[in-house]
Design brief:
Helices cover 25% and strands 22% of the residues. It has three helices and five strands, in the order αβββαβαβ. By secondary structure, it is of the alpha+beta class. It binds guanosine-5'-monophosphate.
């Protein structure tokens, strides 16, 4: 299975990549919702949270650790930031390659808009 994000990971599609290692890639969202809006994705395709397996625990931990490091790098750690993972239609997921949104640089407001 391939996805837009898998193509970005492979360097086949352009993106503003801010971090990459053997397990995860992070790049700026093309349609930023905040001054900092970075997507952190596993290098291999896991479509949704529903598809996570025990073997993915390492990569999931890495995603969170990279989020922490990027928040510091972006200068948003102290004020605070938000991490979001959407799942399936009602969760608002549009790209079926698991990703964590790192959002910050302004007050994020209430957790849900409606
Ligand atoms: P979701 O709604 O699935 O949680 O989030 C998908 C995110 O991917 C959206 O915020 C959208 O702006 C972003 N996105 C979709 N296509 C691309 C792309 O080709 N490049 C980048 N950098 N971001 C994308």
């Amino acid at each position: 299975m391939t996805t837009i994000f898998a193509k970005i990971v492979a360097g086949e599609l352009p993106a503003d990549i801010v971090y990459q290692d053997d397990l995860v890639t992070a790049f700026r969202d093309i349609n930023a919702s905040a001054p900092t809006h970075i997507l952190i994705v596993p290098n291999h395709v896991i479509p949704t949270v529903n598809d996570i397996s025990e073997e993915d625990e390492m990569v999931l931990g890495r995603m969170l650790h990279v989020a922490k490091k990027l928040a510091a790098q972006e200068g948003i750690a102290e004020k605070g930031f938000r991490l979001i993972v959407n799942c399936n239609e009602w969760g608002g997921q549009t790209v079926y390659h698991l990703h964590m949104h790192l959002l910050g640089g302004k007050p994020m407001g209430p957790m849900l808009s409606s």
